[in-house]
Write a structure and sequence with these properties.
The complex is a heterodimer of chains A (149) and B (379). By secondary structure, chain A is mostly beta strands. Chain A is built from one helix and ten strands; from the N terminus they run αββββββββββ. In chain A, strands 6-7-8-10-9 form a five-stranded mixed β-barrel. In chain A, strands 2, 3, 4 and 5 form a four-stranded antiparallel sheet that branches. Chain B is globular and about 55 Å long. Classes of the chains: A mainly beta (149), B alpha/beta (379). Chains A and B meet through β6, β7, β8, β9 and β10 of A and α4 and β5 of B.
Amino acid sequence: MTQEQVATEKKIKPLVPFLKIPDKYPDEPAYLWGSKCKSCGTVYLGSRIACAKCASTGPFEEVRLSDEGEIYVFSVVHQTVPGLEAPYVAAIIDLAEGVAVRANVYGLDPLNPSPQWFGKKVKMYTEKIRVDREGNDVIAAKFKVVDGK
Amino acid sequence: MRDVAIVGANMIKFGRYPDKDLVQLASEAAIGALKDAGITMNEVQMVVSGNLYQANAMVGQRIMKEIGATGVPVVNVANACATGSTAFREAYLAVASGAYDIALAIGSEQMGKMGLLTGFGDRDPSYSSEGVMGTGLMPGVFGQTGVEHMRKYGTTAEQFAKIAVKNHKHSVHNPYAQYQVETPLEDVINARVIAWPNTLYMCCPTGDGAAAAVLMSAEKARQYTKQPVWVAASVLTSDPWTQRNPIMFDVNTLTRNAAEEAYEKAGIGPEDLSMVELHDCFATAELVHYENLMLCGEGEAGRLIDEGETYVGGRIPVNASGGLLSKGHPLGATGVANIVEVAWHLRGQAGGRQVEGAKVGLAHVIGLGSACTIHILKK
C-alpha cells in the first residue's frame, strides 16, 4: 500500500474512546472497555492515569465490559441541540463490572416515562451515526430494551 | 481566622441588557455595594471578580478601570455556577486571614439569550455524543438527578412541579427577579417538557446580572455599620469519588459534605436557620437539596414541599427571592446574589418577600463538575 493510499483510506472510528472497534468490525462486534484498578478494584471507562478512588497510579488491568446492563435512572430530553431528533431517552446504565455508562435507550416510549423503567435490562448495539470531517465513519454505542424483561 | 462581616451588599435586577456591556453591569453592582458600605474604592484593599464566560479577559481589572483603578490586587475566579460564591469566599479568606481589612467581591455574567448551554469548542462536532450516548445537557442531567430521587423514594413529577409553583409565587415580591410571574401547578405541569420531569417553568432562565459585596474585619465593620452581617461559615467542596460520578454527576455528596462542615464551623444546625437560598437551577435540584442540607430527613423532601413548609411563612422558607427559577441564573453573578439576598433578609431590607425576624440564613450554590459553596450568615 502506498503512503497516499494510507492517508486517504476511510477509517471506522468510535464516537467515544471507551468503545473498541476490532479490525474485523462489523464481523467481530465492537465492545465497551475499561480499566480496573489493581489496588482497589474500581473500574473506569477507557484508560486511566490514576485511580480517583484510592489515588493508586496503577497498574490497571484492561477489562472488556458487558454488553448487557440495566437502567439506573433516565431523563427524556425534549429540547436539545439543533439537528438532533427529540425526544430521546437519556439513561444511566449500570454494567455488571460496577461502572456506569451514559446511553440513549431505544424500545421505550419517550412520551410515557415510567418508574417501571428502573432496573430494566438493556443490551448494547453499535451503529454508524455520522461521517467526520476527514470522511471517517463514526460508530456509536446505543442500548435497546431486552424484550420481555 | 478573624471574624468577617458583610457591610455592603447589592445586586442589579437580573434580566437581559443588550444595550449594556458586562463591565457596566458589574460596575453598577459594585458601586451600589460600596455606597451601601459607606466607602469608595479608595478604602478597598483587594478585589475578587467572578465571571465565567469571560474568564480569560481580566474582568476584575476592567471593572476597576471603570470604578476606581487604585492598583490594589485583583483576582479573577471561575468555578462554573459557583463562580460568584467562590469569589465571595476568596474575599472572605483574604480578610479572615488578616491579610486585608476591606475586600470587595463582585460576580457578573452576560449571557443574553444563550439558551441551552452547549458548545464543542475546537472539537469536531461529529464526535458529540449528545443525544446518541445519553445526555450532558443541563436539563437532562438535572432531570436524572430528580429521577434518581423518584427511584429511591417514590417522589412524583408533581412534587417537583410544586417547587416551581412556590418559587414563582415568591418571585412576585422580588423586583430584582428576571421573571415575576406566578405559575399555578397546572401551568407548570402542562408547560412543554424540556427534559423530563422538568418542564419549561422548572428550568432557570439564562440572562445578564451582577452582584457585589463588601467584606470587612470586625473592627472595620463596627466603624462603618450598625448592621453587620457575620459570615459564620464559608465552605467550598469538590466531589469525592462516588460510584457513577462523573458519568452521572453527583450533586448530593459534595453538598452534604459542605453542609456538615458549614454547620460544624458555624456551631449552628439546620434547625436554627431562618431561611435558605439554595441552588435551584432546576426544580428537581431544589428538592434533593432539602435533604442534602438536612432541612428534613432522608426521603422526606417530597413531604416538605407537599406541606408547604418551604414557603415564606412556613417552617423553613427556601428561595424567598424566587430562586434561580425566577430570578435568573447569570452564572458568575448567582453566587454573590444569593449571599446578598440572605444579607438583605437579615437586615430586614427584603421588602415584600421579607422573612420576618430572620436571624440566620444559608446560601448554597453548586457549580456542576463540581464545586459546592455554603455560606452561613448571621446577624
